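Structure in, sequence out. Go:
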């Protein structure tokens, strides 16, 4: 049941955009306040579904936040194979749902080949749904240790869909590949988003510097991966400003140009 008293916040101009957050996880007691803090900081965000329950919750929260509420619905590759996908399809038709996912491949937690094949089939269901509804895809992809195996398999699937003329817009959330792998997804028209780890790890600097500015987005993946100065604490959408500022520091363009682009890219990606 949707919350019966949705709020209409005095939304401020959007200064930062969190393309991937989870107010539907670990925020049971204070998600309204966390969302309001984000709005006060000029942060807009998309609340991401990762299974049926969190997708339903994300949509309920988007309804509550009124004009400031956006969400996605989908099944994480490790959490959704026993769910009736028809329930996700029904949720996805709501106009508050601006993306499909998170979905994809996660080989980090899965060495079993039949289970990996099941992940592929589940991912293809999300691809088909995104194409039919003309909504972008929020992709989770995590390879097994020391490899890019999940990225390689996922790239092949996306390229097949491109060849069929059925590839929706897609974002590689929390991207951890190298520059060569990044170029493969960029060549398909993909976006890449980066979370708070870029504030304390130099692993992502080369990609952030080299990739086209118009394909780059900031995210928190809250409540996980809090940026400096909140490392080790619960993350939240308001903290995306630290991610965006770090991206601006790494890029060759001026700070103002980068920060404006991060907002514009997200708004265009999600058709807001």
């Amino acid at each position: 049941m949707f919350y019966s008293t949705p709020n209409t916040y005095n939304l401020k101009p959007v200064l930062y955009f969190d393309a991937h957050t989870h107010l539907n996880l670990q925020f049971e007691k204070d998600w309204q306040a966390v969302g309001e803090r984000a709005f006060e900081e000029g942060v807009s965000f998309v609340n991401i579904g990762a299974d049926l329950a969190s997708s339903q919750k994300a949509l309920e929260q988007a309804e509550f936040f009124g004009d400031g509420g956006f969400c996605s619905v989908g099944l994480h590759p490790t959490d959704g194979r026993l769910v009736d996908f028809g329930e996700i399809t029904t949720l996805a038709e709501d106009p508050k749902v601006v993306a499909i996912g998170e979905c994809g491949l996660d080989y980090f937690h899965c060495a079993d080949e039949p289970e990996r094949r099941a992940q592929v089939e589940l991912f293809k269901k999300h691809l088909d749904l995104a194409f039919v509804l003309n909504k972008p895809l929020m992709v989770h992809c995590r390879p097994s240790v020391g490899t890019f195996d999940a990225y390689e398999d996922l790239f092949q699937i996306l390229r097949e869909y491109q060849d069929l003329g059925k590839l929706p817009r897609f974002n590689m959330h929390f991207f951890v590949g190298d520059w060569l792998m990044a170029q493969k997804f960029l060549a398909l028209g993909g976006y890449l988003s980066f979370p708070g780890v870029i504030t304390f790890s130099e692993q992502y600097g080369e990609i952030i510097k080299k990739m086209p500015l118009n394909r780059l987005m900031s995210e928190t993946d809250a409540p996980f991966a809090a940026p400096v100065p909140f490392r080790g604490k619960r993350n939240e959408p308001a903290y995306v400003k630290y991610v965006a500022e770090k991206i601006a520091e790494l890029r060759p363009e001026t700070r103002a140009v980068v920060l404006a682009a991060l907002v514009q890219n997200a708004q265009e990606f999600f058709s807001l």
